[in-house]
């Protein structure tokens, strides 16, 4: 018997199965098209295995409120076919086993908390900086959810004095995702982030925004570890710049671990999300 995991991203789904020790014994990457087509391939993959449970970490927004009639649905996404789709229901209908359901970033936070760079910490916040910005957190050993799941990417930030870009979030002015996710960098400079490596001002501005986010998460949640993942964080010069901007902003008002140990890269590299899904699958068996 195995654990199954679905890291459901807006671009691709990664599915994996593991043994009891959470060693991944098989995995597949599937393009996210329309639900029927994508899930057909998900089923083909999992049908080969006898599964104890499945953990899903999904792109959002999703409904995680167990009292809601649309619990388990993807909600207001613009992705064709996925809006109001009963994702959890579709998986449960196919496999009559326990299924854990949370956001992709909550799953990644859980993976880092249990097995990654936060494994010796009491709490952990995980932020992905990619096509969008999203954050998840583990507090008291559980992923943080309330009436809904956190939407940490849409935090309001102060505009950098040299920034003339409007941001791409259709909902908010001056929101972190709109000003600092990968597409904002591309729109501001006319080139993708990976082509701008040597442009120091690009990363200083990026750090200015991300540090504001982290300062606000610190003030509201006081996590013990902040793990930063996603495509944009592949720029290695960013982490030290973020720490330094954070230091300037916070002015030592609140205590944290040393910033080198506080604001860190994922210990599980690109496997934080899928590992978290496997661990949540195992927890769901015991629930
Ligand atoms: P997703 O968010 O879709 O899951 P990623 O985390 O890979 O995917 O994020 C994709 C975004 O990250 C794109 O906007 C891309 O331009 C940017 N990106 C990817 N690699 C790099 C890099 N090496 N440097 C800067 N930006 C990058
Ligand atoms: Zn926004």
UniProtKB/TrEMBL annotation:
EC primary class: transferase
Keyword Magnesium recorded: yes
Cofactor(s) recorded in Swiss-Prot or TrEMBL: Mg(2+)
Catalyses which reaction(s): D-fructose + ATP = D-fructose 6-phosphate + ADP + H(+)
Pfam families in the record: ROK
SUPFAM superfamilies the record matches: Actin-like ATPase domain
EC number: 2.7.1.4
Name listed for the protein in its UniProt record: fructokinase
């Amino acid at each position: 018997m195995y654990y199954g995991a679905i890291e459901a991203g807006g671009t691709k789904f990664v599915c994996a199965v593991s043994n009891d020790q959470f060693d991944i014994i098989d995995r597949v990457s599937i393009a996210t098209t329309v639900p029927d087509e994508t899930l057909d391939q998900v089923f083909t993959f999992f049908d080969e295995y006898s599964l104890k449970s499945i953990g899903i970490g999904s792109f959002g927004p999703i409904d995680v409120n167990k009292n809601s009639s649309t619990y388990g649905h993807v909600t207001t996404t613009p992705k064709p076919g996925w809006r109001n789709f009963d994702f959890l229901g579709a998986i449960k209908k196919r496999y009559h086993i326990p299924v854990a359901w949370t956001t992709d970033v909550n799953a990644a936070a859980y993976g880092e908390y249990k097995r990654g760079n936060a494994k010796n910490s009491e709490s952990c916040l995980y932020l992905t900086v990619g096509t969008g910005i999203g954050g998840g957190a583990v507090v008291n050993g559980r992923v943080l959810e309330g009436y809904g799941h956190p939407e940490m990417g849409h935090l309001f930030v102060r505009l950098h004095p040299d920034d003339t870009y409007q941001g791409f979030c259709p909902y908010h002015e001056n929101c972190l995702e709109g000003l600092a996710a990968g597409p904002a960098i591309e729109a501001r400079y006319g080139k993708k982030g990976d082509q701008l490596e040597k442009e120091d001002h690009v990363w200083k501005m990026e750090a200015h925004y991300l540090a504001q986010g982290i300062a606000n998460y610190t003030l509201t949640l006081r996590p013990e570890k902040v793990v930063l993942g996603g495509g944009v964080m592949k720029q290695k010069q960013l982490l030290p710049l973020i720490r330094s901007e954070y230091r300037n902003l916070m002015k030592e008002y609140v205590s944290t671990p040393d910033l080198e140990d506080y604001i860190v890269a994922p210990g599980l590299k690109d496997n934080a999300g899928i590992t978290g899904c496997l661990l949540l699958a195992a927890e769901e068996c015991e629930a």
